[in-house]
Amino acid sequence: MGRYEGDPEWDDVAPIPQDDGEGALAQIAYTDEYAEAMSYLRAMMAAKEHSQRVLDLSEHIISMNAAHYTVWLYRAATLFALNADIEQELNWVKDIALENQKNYQIWHHRQLLIDHLYPTISSEPRALQQLAESEISFMTEMFNEDSKNYHVWSYRQYLVRKLNLFNEAELKSIETLLRSDVRNNSAWSHRFYVVFSDPKNTTPGSRATEHDPKIPDEIIDREIEFSKAATFEAPQNQSPWNYLRGVLRKGGRKLSSQECFASEFVKIPEDGEECIRSSHALDFLADVWAEEGKIEKADEALLLLGDKYDRIRKNYWEWRRGMVKEEGVRKGLE
Amino acid sequence: MGEPKLDIERHIKYWQRCLKTVLPTQYTSTDSSRMLLGFFILSALDLLGAGADTFPAKDRKNIRDWILKCQHPYGGFCGSPNHRYPDAYYVDVGHGRQQMDPANLPATFFAILSLSFVGSLEQVKRDECLKWLKTLQRGDGSFGELITQEGIIEGGRDMRPCYLAAAVRWMLRGDTPLSDKEKGDDIDVEKLVDHIRAGQTYDGGVSESFQHETHAGYTCCAISALSIIRRLPQSTSQTNSGAPGLTNIPETIRWLVSRQVGYKEEEEEEDETEAKASAPPLLQGVYENEPLVPGLSLGDVDFVGFNGRCNKKVDTCYAYWVTASLDMLGHDKTKLLNTNGSRRFLLEQTQHRIGGFGKAPGNLPDIYHSYLGLATLAIMKEPGIKPLDSALCVSAQQKDIIGQLRNAALSR
């Protein structure tokens, strides 16, 4: 006898079993426990019952299939209908999240909970502060397991927006993560978001790939310096190189404004052997030189990349050589 | 070891096992995505030339019946029979039409594709499905995965539903220009393009949204959606209206080719682990396949794997997301990759001896990685596999069949 069938508390419920039919696709060896729980969930959803036993049942199903997309929604609706304790639910979700690192639904559920909780505390700065602190400490716990967990970072961005965390503390916490792993590209991306979507200093709706004239020069300078420092630490790390390009575009500045910096990692003497400490620096300089119309120099850099410093991308560098030459011809004809 | 090759027979056996035997209990966590698993199985067998057209008619009928059993009475499909109630529950008994467990966008995409392997699209509730699809679009152009009884659109705003919506629309509508009435019932394509454009971020790739980190999966979904609605450069000859879908294609290409990571075989890795242990702390987090100080690899590598984000580990599925993205930016663009190294990585490192592909070297095969490994080789024109249509992620031949089935269903 199943767990629910034998339980007097569920006596009044007629379960709705699944009908898979013959020759079904992708049949799964469901356990009897799962099949029974699902048939009771279907009965609950059909009756639109929102009760404590629905919470227990949904918890049971989530423990077996955390990716069930409607059980989470039904659980949230039940919690709200019962006026349940949201903080208690946040704690429960925390444990589930730590056990299911790859699950998406958990984070959506957590957002629903915060959205529900927020209006009840939005006028109390201390409560908001506490919420931000406890959420950030939970995310730190998640990052200790995997500092690049995509869902956690999505949630982080949601929280920054919701609780207006475009602040110094947020930048500092990113720096802490980058100090332990300067190649954490998720942290770099988050920094870009926190700096360049901060409503205080940016044009609303400005996209990641656009120049934003509203950003103060000091911020552009500060971010350039930040990426440079990280590059000196690990020149072959592509994250700060990408970041630098992004910052320059936001600031409406040319790549060539950083020619000197990139040249720190690239020495190509007239005669004798070159000294290259970063393929990304060479790539950057190739773009600088192409931008300045120095076609031969750009070509030489791309050739070095394909032949020696980044051979696995040989085909790509050859293609870039073709593009630079074409561009040169086009400019020459003008 | 001789010349690496795809062991076609073993792959067919692997997929036939997936088709014929019950999947182990561990797959319970994918119960809500059974339609996706079913699609992978049918399409893999098609790519390998052992598709549903070779099954006994009774098996085809059973599969067709099962898929149709997951169709929502008001349009769209559900992820598995566990999400579909008996018909009586949906009837309006004075409280409006009951959605029960609502139809789901990914399930709908995979169900329609799967049906195309086993017969016809005539029983797809086309008009209802297209009307439902329109209700999934939000004001900002993005799509959700489902809409609740209360009219709330649920699911992320990322590129996956954008792609799925574009593909479902194409499978049901095709490429012919719409009449004014049809336009009124159609999704807002301009807003969709705008939303996708907004997802491109500072390093050239596409992210869940512009606020987040670029990811090969999202980049591929964005490019696939644009390809299907003909907003990529090479398809401008067909439609010239509206803004192009990507803001900066050379930057996107740079980001895509940067996903290639040289991979060394295990015995060499051991040396590297030792070296890594004594490396200074500033190199913490360096992946073991990352070249050592000063960070440049001057030698040739035999194997080239792909990561999905900057500085992440290689994984079979990213070979697909990256290769397919480049293929859609122009068929010649896949030549920008190190196809030889990438082919060898798949065949010698993640191909499993029982057939299928694992996520990473040494891993057991699973349905998801096995399909995407195979599909990558199909784009690279591996002998013995049918050529792939990267936007729909089925054989080019199957794409044609979908067009024929659509026309047949429409002229019924």
Question: Secondary-structure blueprint of this entry?
Answer:
The complex is a heterodimer of chains A (about 325) and B (about 400).
Chain A: H1 32-47, H2 52-64, H3 69-81, H4 86-99, H5 105-121, H6 125-145, H7 150-162, H8 168-180, H9 185-196, H10 217-233, H11 238-250, H12 259-263, E1 266-267, E2 275-276, H13 279-291, H14 295-309, H15 314-333
Antiparallel strand pairs in A: 1-2
Helix pairs in contact in A: 1-2, 2-3, 3-5, 4-5, 5-7, 7-9, 8-9, 9-11, 10-11, 13-14, 14-15
Chain B: H1 8-20, H2 34-47, H3 57-69, H4 105-117, H5 126-135, E1 146-147, E2 153-154, H6 159-173, H7 180-184, H8 189-198, H9 216-228, H10 249-257, E3 260-263, H11 266-277, E4 303-306, H12 316-328, H13 339-350, H14 367-379, E5 388-389, E6 394-395, H15 396-410
Overview of the molecule:
The complex is a heterodimer of chains A (334) and B (412). Chain A is mostly helical and 334 residues long. Chain A has 3 domains: 84 residues, no CATH class; 80 residues, no CATH class; 70 residues, Alpha Horseshoe (Serine Threonine Protein Phosphatase 5, Tetratricopeptide repeat). Chain A is built from 15 helices and 2 strands. Chain A has a two-stranded antiparallel ribbon with strand order 1-2. In chain A, strand 1 and strand 2 form a beta hairpin. The N and C termini of chain A lie far apart (85 Å). The relative contact order of chain A is 0.04. The mean pLDDT of chain A is 95. Chain B has 15 helices and 6 strands. Chain B is mainly α. Chain B has a domain of 104 residues. Chain B has a two-stranded antiparallel sheet with strand order 1-2. Chain B has a two-stranded antiparallel ribbon with strand order 3-4. Helix content of chain B is 44%, strand content 4%. The interface between A and B is large, with 80 and 93 residues. Chain A: Its EC number is 2.5.1.58, 2.5.1.59. Chain A: Keywords: Magnesium, Prenyltransferase, Repeat, Transferase. Chain A: It holds the Pfam family PPTA. Chain A: Its cofactor is Mg(2+). Chain A: InterPro entries: Prenyl_trans_a. Chain B: Its cofactor is Zn(2+).
